[in-house]
Design a protein that fits this description.
The protein is of the alpha+beta class. Helices cover 36% and strands 19% of the residues. The chain contains 17 helices and 15 strands. The strands form 4 sheets. Strands 1, 2, 3, 4, 5, 6, 7, 8 and 9 form a 9-stranded mixed sheet that branches. The longest helix has 22 residues, at 360-381. The radius of gyration is 27 Å and the shape is globular. This is PiggyBac transposable element-derived protein domain-containing protein. Pfam families: DDE_Tnp_1_7. Residues 10-375 form the PiggyBac transposable element-derived protein domain. InterPro entries: PGBD.
Length: 481
């Protein structure tokens, strides 16, 4: 479905698809403005320092320490972070990190991060989409007391306290759209018809996230019983051409509930038994299935057939036995996990940005979404090839941000030209993009060490031999260390 990329890109280039230079410029502008408004003195934050700040936090997500000050302390110093920026400057920038002008507050409950939210959301919407999506909520961890009613509690989540964000993701785990929950202010920037306004919160979330699908006709949505109703499924099919499947609560079945057997009667038939009803007025298949407990699902594109078998563990026999399973349940299980996969990838190397300001955790969540989306796009474009693990990909972005447009080729000293060797990731060294030879002052070769050469690689910024019988330039860019 998705053709492989003809030209490979670096991890930083994938990351910049979501977190672009315009966003960094916005952060620089608003951070300097916020410091001037509060202290009346310039902070003079630069784009390079914001890139350094992002690089540090990405690396902190991989290398965890009890406190962020431990990366700079004498006993636990971690040079890959401590050498990027002094601790005091890091604290100063993070203290005044800002994304909006406080004087322009329009009453939006997420005004502090609205610019950041919308910028990253627009970039996510530019991605080439799949045709199957799941919609679910994720929790952005936050236990502070300054978020007011923005902070929610969901008992079944691993992180129970935090900000609730509704997400539309593909089966691959790529996040295409999201919506931060803000009570009555949730749909500030969304318009609904009179019929849609009367469908309730869950249905309106689905409608808001489904309206941004590029090719709505014959797309399929999956969601759980918080969102599902027969009216929503019918409306999606008739008005937008979108098929849907979801588990549904008993009190939303309308007349179909009376035609289905009770939970007690279905349990008597044994594990794997099911019943199906298709109301004539809406033509939606409603199936009730008993596994360890009864579950009801409704769909506008599939039903119980073909009946399949799944393997379940039995406590009595202490073995795995085949259990009858209707096709609608199989479809739901195979396609509903996109949001959970995206949430799991964020949790692997979560960027912890603890602060007194309530909106900083949202910033760290968005940063992780950008990294994970970039990695999944990289995997999709390089399907069939050997690819980097998420941890290596994240470290490569951090390293490239740290050295991006700021490596000095030649530093003039009193003794003449002095060559400064930057650090470059293995991916950047072996990507075979933009590695051109040029001339510099004479110095040691990066590859063979013993020899002197005047040739440098303009991208890697290192000296390499380029003579007959010893082509270190070629070896350095084609062979792993």
């Amino acid at each position: 479905m998705f053709p492989p990329s003809l030209q490979s890109r670096s991890p930083l280039e994938y990351f910049r698809m979501f977190f672009d230079d315009d966003l960094i410029e916005l952060i620089v502008q608003q951070t300097n403005l916020y410091h001037m408004q509060t202290k009346s003195t310039p902070l003079n934050v630069t784009t390079d320092e914001i890139r350094d700040l992002i690089a540090i936090h990405l690396l902190m997500g991989v290398v965890n320490m009890p406190a962020y000050t431990d990366y700079w302390c004498k006993t636990l110093r971690y040079n890959k972070i401590a050498n990027i920026m002094p601790l005091k400057r890091f604290q100063q920038i993070r203290r005044y990190l800002h994304f909006a002008n406080n004087l322009q507050d329009d009453g939006d409950r997420y005004f502090k991060v609205r610019n950041l939210l919308e910028s990253i959301r627009r970039n996510c919407l530019k991605i080439e989409e799949e045709n199957r999506f799941s919609i679910d909520e994720v929790m952005v961890p936050y236990k502070g007391t300054r978020a007011g009613s923005r902070k929610q509690y969901i008992k079944n989540k691993p992180r129970k306290w935090g900000f609730k964000v509704f997400v539309r993701a593909g089966v691959s785990g790529i996040i295409y759209d999201f919506l931060a929950y803000g009570g009555e202010d949730t749909f500030r920037y969304h318009d609904f018809t009179e019929d849609e306004n009367g469908m309730g919160l869950g249905a309106k979330v689905v409608l808001a996230l489904s309206k941004t699908i590029k090719q709505q006709a014959c797309s399929v949505l999956y969601f759980d019983n918080f969102f599902t109703s027969l009216e929503l499924l019918k409306h999606l099919r008739n008005e937008y051409g979108i098929f849907a499947l979801g588990t549904i609560r008993q009190n939303r079945l309308r007349g179909a509930a009376a035609k289905l057997p009770t939970d007690k009667n279905l349990k008597k038939r044994g594990r794997g038994s099911f019943a199906q009803v298709i109301p004539n007025e809406c033509k939606i298949a409603v199936i009730k299935w008993f596994d360890t407990k009864c579950v009801t699902a409704a769909s506008t594109y599939t039903h119980s057939q073909p009946v399949q078998q799944v393997w379940r563990y039995c406590k009595k026999t202490k073995s795995r036995n085949p259990v009858t399973c209707p096709n609608i349940i199989k479809e739901y299980n195979n396609n509903m996990g996109g949001v959970d996969l995206a949430d799991m990838l964020v949790a692997l190397y979560r960027t912890e940005m603890r602060a007194h300001r309530w909106y900083i955790p949202l910033c760290s969540q968005l940063l992780d979404i950008c990294v994970n989306n970039a990695w999944l796009i990289y995997r999709r474009e390089n399907k069939g090839k050997k690819h980097m693990k998420l941890k290596v990909f994240r470290c490569a972005i951090s390293n490239d941000l740290n050295t991006f447009q700021r490596t000095k080729e030649i530093a003039n000293t009193s003794r003449g030209a002095h060559f400064v060797t930057p650090q470059i990731s293995d991916y950047g060294r072996l990507d075979q993009i933009g590695h051109m030879p040029s001339f510099a002052s004479k110095g040691r070769c990066k590859k063979c060490i013993k020899s002197q050469t005047k040739f440098i690689c303009v991208k890697c910024n290192v000296r390499l031999c380029l003579v007959e019988g010893r082509n270190c330039f070629f070896d350095y860019h084609t062979k792993s260390a």
